[in-house]
Amino acid sequence: MYRIASCGMDNTVKIWSMKEFWPSVEKSFTWTDLPSKFPTKYVQFPVFIASVHSNYVDCNRWLGDFVLSKSVDNEIVLWEPRTKDQSPGEGTVDILQKYPVPECDIWFIKFSCDFHYNAAAIGNREGKIFVWELQTSPPSLIARLSHAQSKSPIRQTAMSFDGSTILSCCEDGTIWRWDAVSSSSSSSSSQV
């Protein structure tokens, strides 16, 4: 707890400790004065810098004590940061598993997860969506969603609380909605 993870164009995922600032975070929930008068705090140095990818990292999420991250390598990577308490910023990474995403080799394609982190959904540059079960090893592909009219890169997905609905935002300005139906059918889709 008390950690955030960030990612960016320097090819790294940085983990930051919020422990010493947590009283300020809690105070912010009950602050009634002008927002400009709230005492600003800065986190100056990350406690861990991970070089899991060899290119820009455009998406990351916590999965318990593990991190899911994605670059332009046609995969989402699940890994465990192992920090050195006596040496802030240093540590090692254990790659736990990889979730392949074909044709996902362009920058700014973001994945999403349901509330309980049972599944992750990600689009690719051909307008297809891959839905992975996150709580299994080896990785299990739940669904591969496609539609004849969805051919533009899917830049971002959003999953509903229970994962039964997936929205996808495409580069051509369309938004697609995918709903789980009965177990005999994989999904239905509609374009907005």
Walkthrough of the structure:
This protein has 192 residues and is mainly β. It has one helix spanning 22-28; strands at 3-7, 13-17, 48-50, 59-63, 66-70, 75-83, 91-100, 112-113, 119-123, 129-133, 140-145, 154-159, 165-170, 175-179, 188-191. The strands form 4 sheets. The chain has a 4-stranded antiparallel β-sheet with strand order 4-5-6-7, with no helix packed on it. Strand 14 and strand 15 form a beta hairpin. The model has no long low-confidence stretch (mean pLDDT 90). Belongs to the WD repeat ESC family. Keywords: Repeat, Transcription, Transcription regulation, WD repeat. Pfam families: WD40.
Q: How do the SSEs run, as a string of H and E? A: EEHEEEEEEEEEEEEE
Helix content: under 10%
Quickly count the helices. 1
Structural class determined from secondary elements: mainly beta
Main sheet: strand order:
4-5-6-7
Shape: globular
Strands, total number: 15
In whole angstroms, how far apart are the ends?
38 Å
Low-confidence stretches: none
Query: For the report, how would you describe the main beta sheet?
Result: 4 strands, antiparallel
Calculate Rg over CA atoms: 19 Å
Proportion of residues in β-strands = 35-45%
Arithmetic mean pLDDT: 90
Task: Summarize the topology.
Elements: E1 3-7, E2 13-17, H1 22-28, E3 48-50, E4 59-63, E5 66-70, E6 75-83, E7 91-100, E8 112-113, E9 119-123, E10 129-133, E11 140-145, E12 154-159, E13 165-170, E14 175-179, E15 188-191
Antiparallel strand pairs: 1-2, 2-3, 4-5, 5-6, 6-7, 8-9, 9-10, 10-11, 12-13, 13-14, 14-15
Protein name: Fertilization-independent endosperm protein
Organism: Linum tenue
Family: Belongs to the WD repeat ESC family.
